[in-house]
What does this fold into?
Amino acid sequence: MVELEPSRWQIVASFFSQQLHQLPARSVLEGKYPGKVMVDNVEAPTVALVWALGRWSYLAGSVTDGLSSSLRAAVNDILVPVQKELEREWVEIYAPDVDHWDETVRESLVDYQSERHMESTYRWNEEKYRAFRRDYSLPEGIRNELVDVPILERYCQTSPIISEGFRIMTAVGCRISRDGESLAQCENNGFESDRQFTIHVVTFDETQRGKGLATAASVGLLDHCLDSGLTPVWETTEYNEPSHRLALRLGFEPVEAYPVYALWW
It folds into this structure.
């Protein structure tokens, strides 16, 4: 596979225009998040790999003869070396949920430890959220506030291989606290396209999970979405049952399930 110059990225935009979980790939293609784009043929690509630097990569297109070898080279020569430069020890590849894609991806990862799991995407139903919100109030003593959060993970914020513009870019989040102590945060994690963004929720102290803190943080950000016209997208792994339950509680509805291949070294 060959890396495309950014000026030509739009030739593969149609590959990533249909599925909701490909929103991060669209964010890269639109220049809103740092990344790399690789194709099998520069002039007439039939398959593309869009990688959000430091995080996830997305495959789309049609499987062709020899693709597993080309993809293996892209992983070995581009993805892994750059991840190592960012001091990361793993990367994930999102692929179509089709048997011949599964075989191709597995063959391309033979040089590494890897595993396949399923993830789900949820679309937000505003009316369901409004119904939930009418009966919801913040736990006593909780304070929530909107904050600016970096779109990049901490390990990318000082990396010289990522431009200064991306390193200082921020998105909106909601942080909740009690007596000045930060408890949880819900945020736009930097992937945005067509006023949609992927959402990330974290409870800072794992011993405090299950106490409604993630719900409180999410409510602050989702209220902001109602006011600003933004639409959140929820993603979670198949085995994260608390995340699935929270998504449903907040008015999100499952729309897609797709395979993710994690590899590490």
About this structure: Helices lie at 23-29, 67-85, 99-108, 126-134, 164-167, 213-228, 241-249. The first strand starts at residue 2 and ends at 3. The radius of gyration is 19 Å.
